[in-house]
Amino acid sequence: MVQKEMLRSSGNRLSIGEYLIERLKDYGIRHVFGIPGDYVLDFYDMLYKSRIKVVGTAKEDGAGFAADAYARINGIGACCVTYCVGGLNLVNSIAGAYAEKAPVVVISGSPALHKRVNDPMLHHKVRSFSTQKEIFDQITAASVVLDDEQIAFQKIDDALAVCWKSKRPVYIELPSDMVSVKPQYPYINKSTEEKSNGLALKEALKDAVSMLNMAKKPAILADVELHRYELGNELIKLMDKTGIPVAVTILGKSVISEMRSGYIGVYEGGMGRPEVQKYIESSDCLLMLGTFLTDVNLGFSFKLDRSHTIEATSEKIQIRYHNYQDILFPDFVKGLVKSKIKKRNAKLPDMPAKKKLSTKTSNVPINAGRFFLRLNDLLEDNMVVICDIGLSLFGAIDLIMHKNTEFIAPAYYTSMGYSVPASLGVSLANSELRTVVLVGDGAFQMTGMELTSIARQGLSPVIIVLNNKGYATERYIKEGEYNDIQDWRYDKIPEVIGKGWGCEVRTETEFVKAWSVACSNTESFSIINIHLDPYDNCPALKRLGKKLKTGKRP
Amino acid sequence: MVQKEMLRSSGNRLSIGEYLIERLKDYGIRHVFGIPGDYVLDFYDMLYKSRIKVVGTAKEDGAGFAADAYARINGIGACCVTYCVGGLNLVNSIAGAYAEKAPVVVISGSPALHKRVNDPMLHHKVRSFSTQKEIFDQITAASVVLDDEQIAFQKIDDALAVCWKSKRPVYIELPSDMVSVKPQYPYINKSTEEKSNGLALKEALKDAVSMLNMAKKPAILADVELHRYELGNELIKLMDKTGIPVAVTILGKSVISEMRSGYIGVYEGGMGRPEVQKYIESSDCLLMLGTFLTDVNLGFSFKLDRSHTIEATSEKIQIRYHNYQDILFPDFVKGLVKSKIKKRNAKLPDMPAKKKLSTKTSNVPINAGRFFLRLNDLLEDNMVVICDIGLSLFGAIDLIMHKNTEFIAPAYYTSMGYSVPASLGVSLANSELRTVVLVGDGAFQMTGMELTSIARQGLSPVIIVLNNKGYATERYIKEGEYNDIQDWRYDKIPEVIGKGWGCEVRTETEFVKAWSVACSNTESFSIINIHLDPYDNCPALKRLGKKLKTGKRP
User: Fold this and answer.
1) What is the pLDDT of residue A405?
2) A120, B295: Cβ pair inside 8 Å?
3) Which residues share a beta bridge with A78?
4) Which chain B residues are Cβ-neighbours of A465 within 8 angstroms?
């Protein structure tokens, strides 16, 4: 995907803005999300006239979430905004991309350098001209200001390389009078590729293989970095070759098909299925690949015993209590696949049977439990499920992702409002995927009106609003009037936006009918407003609520 | 308003959370805007059970804008959110409050200190536990973490004092396990009041008075700090006593009634009325009180000649090219009022006559020019006008604010989406004011659904959407498809939210009718969707657009 060499010779004939656009294309970026503003308008217009498609959102945080989700499917994403009033609206979504390793390139315009003499109060300025950069320093892996044409080209290359390697967002600030500037001297990219230390890699692999082969009950816990570094197929090879069973975390869900033999389900401490919990926590050699050891991933409970773990991530390789440096994560995973690991024939816990539900559906009020069972039954091969926070996320633990299905959720940073704008990014990243969004009413009220951007692009995601009239997860921790919100007619939003199809659902029968209409609507988004009882909930969330209520507050 | 002494003796009997609430009340805070989340839930519940009213918003940025506008009317405002996924959604609105000096107290929950051992990946964490504080360091005048019960009380007092004095936002972070902690030893507030240096003040006043008395054509440019420090009445005394004419900036508009004799209008360089521009720019002694010398305030053009200016703000007193230290802004203004300044009888430029428009209204399509004329005619004494960015702001320059009318606009930071959530804050800050919001369609799509929070509070602002189908201000700088947005039926939003009244308007006749219905609707918000031509515009904006297009890009 990355054609690093391509522009070594031609870079010197392009302006800074043009070069940035070329490099975005090299990395496979075909869409940039954002909103124009005066300080970024020249670059925005340049982008608009390039082969990259500019995708407008209603608000900048929507652009951030869309770019994050786009990156999760496409490998990398980008957004482009104006100075401060634009960029500072991105902070939460880019912080989420940082926390969950979604590689997003943030491009922001800023006031012309020649206008900054004597520090004037130009509109959108907060404290100093560097305020925005200093904020992005906290939530990106690299941040650069293209304020010098002799080093701007190298800065662009370096920032994009960091984004690609670390899978974390980077910040590129382009003052408005630098967009069309060309360098005085030809630019030559001087960066070099990082490589693993071969001897360290060899020793670490030997160490790991010996531990795996000595174990009685090895298991693999697969997480999101396998997806980010495109190592899903390597994991499949490793499973097939060794017979070691694989569980995933909720953040890593769908890194491989959940219908594959050897796959035992989502591990999430006491929140996941008990048989998966038991298998993973009793393993005497747990190989954790690309794991985020977050409280959510561990179900707010599991204490790892490092004497029994091998942990490989992009940040470190740790075996029991010792660490290896200078080893690239993909090299370690590929090395494992090629190593001599004993073939096992493990007795696996049963997966819940994927059985067809009765076509007779019930006319009693729908509840969360039945909804997820029914949805599981209806999901098709080409569907991607995007979950927002709360019931949407925890209920979805037990959805079974098909062969090509993707599952996307901000399961660590857990920012409400992710899902609707994310569906814009996903639908554009891969137009063959049919996007299904599960979103609570509280989260929808935060960013759901980004449906307007989806409407403008003529996309057709299916939006399911799990309308339980408030912040239901919180009701289990502490109940108060502050958990109630206004009960919107989400199904009437198409009338406001002027596009889309919506309906209300109160029973399972109505849901099945609505789903069928929504799936056949490929002209516009569909929105299904499912009325749930405010205290109805899925089993995982009930367990979590109890834990949070009775234990110490997180 | 501030009862600093009150809690000196009782402070030691309260927990950290309780003390914070007491101090907020001392400063006159009666409402706190926000959204609960698990890390802040205990404090949120404590706040909810206190005499302070907790006001929920759909998203945190709405809470930030509401608190900012509340502060502009009430003197100080506050919002309360959860860690990172909440707080980082506030960054843009609090940056705006910093830029325009709106004193807002930001309270954020954060993970319990006892859970942070070994730096675990707790949900909502970005890079480190201090990421959020480091971001708020950039956009607040003080930021504190209440992580030690022996100094927490002093930190609360210090932060609130900074907020009150600097009129800028402050950040108070409260880890979830510190809310109910009481101090081991009694707390004694050790802070002291700042005072002006009497000799410096005397010299500066003498210097200023002498310059004013020597001048042939003195003038006063009044700006927003007069409002923030509640010095409007002092300005009136100064006008009455000296006869020196007063203009205001767009940010300072309505610091005094615009129908007062001696008032000549809004100064905004080439964007304001030419006679005001001429008067101010030709003054041989311009007394600038509480001014923000921003590009917008100066109409993107005026170059000040400091040989003819006296500038007094909370940050400095500058006369010609020399500065005075250690003088408090209010002391200087009050000192001027008491000084012997020559009484003038200046020949003032004419104010546009405030004449009644014909009651016969026209059935031709409404345009921006006629809309503002008509609105000017219809505005009543108890109304407050809140303007969003673009046509809404620039068109409103020539609205004439009545006796009690307030005018609120983020006229320097110019963040779109300010107005609708701001109306929530204004309506609660002073229930006797009737709130009128002027908002473009682009800005409305960013935050307009905060109408849901307005509906929950049973408030009745009149929302006027100047629907020109896109980012119209930008069309004058650079036109492209990216300036178009979806044409919503804003008037149908009441059907989604389940409250409110809306209608569409295409002619002046329809507007007058709609206005009358909206004004008599005191049960709920009203929303008027005014269809304007995408290229229709007000004269000020046309001039600005031309300037931005032909001059160097800002």
Assistant:
1) 67
2) yes
3) A105
4) none
Rounded (10°) CA dihedral A35, A37, A74, A69: -50
Q: In Å, how far is A300's CA from the nearest CA of chain B?
A: 9
Q: Cβ separation of A417 and B59 shorter than 8 Å? A: yes
Report B:163-182 residues touching A (Cβ under 8 A).
176-177
Q: Do domains A198-338 and A368-550 have the same CATH topology?
A: yes
Token pair recorded at residue A364: 């009693």
Q: Which CATH class is domain B198-338?
A: alpha beta
HSE-up of residue A232 (Cα within 13 Å, Cβ side): 18
DSSP designation for B356? P
Q: In B, which residues are within 8 Å of A481 by CB distance?
A: 48
- Is B452–A496 a contact, with Cβ atoms under 8 angstroms apart? no
Q: Which of residues 75-114 of A touch B (CB under 8 A)?
A: 84-85, 88-89, 91-92, 95-96, 98-99, 111-112, 114
Q: Which residue has the higher pLDDT, B359 or A36?
A: A36
In chain A, domain spans: 10-175, 198-338, 368-550
CATH number among 3.30.1360.20, 3.40.50.300, 3.40.190.150, 3.40.50.970, domain B368-550? 3.40.50.970
Interface subset of B 403-422, CB within 8 angstroms of A:
412-417
pLDDT greater than 90 at residue A232: yes
What rounded mean pLDDT belongs to chain A?
A: 91
CATH of B10-175, one of 3.40.50.970, 3.50.50.60, 3.40.1170.60, 3.40.605.10: 3.40.50.970
End-to-end CA distance of chain B, in Å?
42
Residue B396: what pLDDT? 87
Burial zone of A53 (CB within 10 Å; 0-12 exposed, 13-18 middle, 19+ buried)? middle
**CB contact set of B354 (below 8 Å; sequence gap of 6+):** B259, B376, B400
With 90 as the cut, is the pLDDT of residue B263 above it? yes
Mean pLDDT, rounded, of chain B: 91
Encoded tokens for A143: 């941040």
Strands A383-387 and A406-408: parallel
Q: What is the pTM of this model?
A: 0.95
Question: pLDDT-based confidence at B93, cuts 50/70/90?
Answer: very high
